[in-house]
Design brief:
With about 325 residues, the chain is α/β, with parallel strands linked by helices. Helix content is about 25%, strand content about 25%. It is globular and about 60 Å long. It binds NADP nicotinamide-adenine-dinucleotide phosphate (NAP).
Length: about 325
């Protein structure tokens, strides 16, 4: 819980009344969740203007956490898709609250059965990165056979972006630092570039799509590395919103930035099917027990994590 915006230390553990599912909701015992960049931004109240949505004086959502994986323990009278005992995963994007032992979800929300053989801690680390990456790649109209460069390929969105671009039939070049090259290659990247050794904007190669999965690059710097008709897909930045409008009218290289992101059940189902087919795996850097949420958050805020940081809420993480 947190009652005010501030550093990770504003977070604390507290007992609250358990939620009660409505007729169209399921009650889920959460086994694992994650600490994401969005959790950190919400807790810090940054950027400041975001407080006009999240609460001006204090946060409206006192419990953070959007990703989750767990077990259905109770269903409302009108629920048809799930029964108690089902192992499920998904995302609770706008209301948060997944850093908890129990949550309620509408059965038609971004929630699906877990594939057989996947552990709770891995399933919990899928949706935030993957659904945000899909939100960028789909409007970018990525087609099979196109060349995609993923910048920041070692982050939560980046590790998802590499695998999704590959699953969608692209030829993928992943850019990250030396330490993460092998992991990123193991996710299916056709080529890797170590940004500490090689500046891809100066190596003479060009791509149909450049996906800046970590928000550290710019359209201006990437433009000459885009093929004619190429698209630059950012993950954040007010400037990129303006550039998306501008390049929609002028020039043949476009910035595509579709906001707000959508978190749909059909995308969670898509991710479940990809995992079941062995075409996707969440990258988990570290696991912390829920009680160590402050330490986990401090690590995420170093901006050096490889993939995702998981909070284990109950001990059971087996398949
Ligand atoms: N559109 C949305 O709704 C939305 C929602 C959430 C987040 N975001 C944005 O999405 C972006 C990524 O989020 P995330 O959760 O995926 O991040 P993340 O997991 O925290 O990213 C960490 C990774 O980025 C790499 N990195 C850091 N600086 C880098 C640089 N200069 N060049 C290349 N790689 C670098 C780090 O590796 P090394 O430093 O070791 O190389 C680390 O592996 C952020 O810009 C965030 O603001 C957007």
């Amino acid at each position: 819980m947190h009652d005010r915006y501030g550093p990770p230390d504003v977070l604390r553990i507290e007992d609250v009344e358990p939620p009660v599912p409505k007729d169209d909701e399921v009650l889920i015992r959460v086994h694992a969740t994650t600490v994401s960049r969005t959790d950190c931004a919400l807790r810090a109240g940054e950027p400041f203007f975001s407080r006009f949505i999240t609460g001006v004086r204090r946060p409206r959502q006192r419990v953070l956490g959007s990703d989750f994986a767990g077990e259905v323990t109770e269903v409302g009278m009108g629920v048809r898709e799930f029964t108690p005992g089902d192992r499920v995963f998904g995302i609770k994007p706008w209301k948060f609250g997944a850093h908890a032992e129990l949550i309620c979800m509408h059965e038609r929300a971004a929630l699906a059965d877990m594939p057989v053989g996947v552990a709770f801690d891995e399933a919990a680390a899928v949706c935030d990165g993957a659904l945000l990456a899909l939100n960028c790649l789909r409007p970018g109209k990525l087609r099979s056979g196109q060349s995609v460069l993923v910048y920041g390929a070692s982050g939560s969105i980046g590790t998802a972006g590499v695998q999704l671009a590959k699953a969608l039939g692209a030829n993928v070049t992943a850019v990250c630092n030396t330490a993460n090259l092998e992991v990123v290659r193991s996710l299916g990247a056709d080529a890797v570039i170590d940004y500490t050794q090689d500046d891809f904007t100066k190596n003479g190669r060009s791509y149909d799509i450049i996906f800046d999965a970590v928000g550290k690059h710019s359209f201006a710097a990437c433009k000459s590395s885009l093929n004619p008709g190429g698209r630059y897909l950012p993950t954040d930045g007010l400037r990129n919103m303006a550039l998306a409008v501008w390049t929609d009218r002028i020039g043949d290289r476009k910035v595509i930035f579709d906001l707000p992101p959508k978190f749909m059940k059909r995308d969670v189902v898509f991710m479940r099917d990809l995992m079941a087919a062995g075409k996707y795996r969440a990258v988990v850097d570290r696991r912390y027990p829920l009680e160590q949420v402050v330490e986990a958050t401090k690590y995420v805020e170093m901006h050096e994590k490889l993939g995702n940081v998981v909070l284990t809420v109950t001990a059971e993480t087996s398949t």
